[in-house]
Amino acid sequence: MLRIGLTGGIGSGKSTVAGLFARHGVPIVDTDAIARELVTPGAPALAEIAARFGPEMLLPDGTLDRPRLRSRVLADPEERRALESILHPRIREEVDRRLNALSAPYAVIVVPLLLETDFEYRVDRILVVDAGEQQQIARTVARGGISEEDAMATMRAQTSRQARLAAADDVLDNTGDPSSLGPAVERLHRRYLALAGTSL
């Protein structure tokens, strides 16, 4: 099975693109969704986060205080690495489990930090969703839950736009009219089917 690693900066449109592939029946494995599942109340990863970062990272209902943890790890690279050491091995294990259970010509794996981690070696092609930096910030703030300051800090912590584009096998331009994404995804869908040795 062909493995397509879908990545892009914060607010670039990764989720939108993943949804368009899903409409074609393509299996989607989303590492952000897996990360959220890993920190539900009672999960071992959440207990480890509380032990490492302090009980103040939990809200009164026992759920993770995401904004508080985000601000802390964005302010300190060592803290970010500590969080990644808790979550990333578990995420990779769950990704492998889900992929091994699939039977499809190809699958899309959504990995925001694909180039920042060792994940690029686990995919066959890298698909980058590209947008301008000001667009990324505006979109991120507009969807709520994160300040402009945190959005900019997240962007600084990620691989640069230039480095992502240099690593890409395929690029989806999301700097213009969002309606152009549908046809672009369909073209890529056909290409990936051909690469996987099948067709529509």
Automatic annotation (TrEMBL):
InterPro entries membership: Depp_CoAkinase, P-loop_NTPase
Localisation per UniProt entry: Cytoplasm
GO biological process: coenzyme A biosynthetic process
Reactions mediated catalytically: 3'-dephospho-CoA + ATP = ADP + CoA + H(+)
Gene Ontology cellular-component terms listed: cytoplasm
Pfam families noted in UniProt: CoaE (PF01121)
Pathway: Cofactor biosynthesis; coenzyme A biosynthesis; CoA from (R)-pantothenate: step 5/5
Keywords attached to this entry: ATP-binding, Coenzyme A biosynthesis, Cytoplasm, Kinase, Nucleotide-binding, Transferase
Family per similarity comment: Belongs to the CoaE family.
Protein name (Swiss-Prot/TrEMBL): Dephospho-CoA kinase
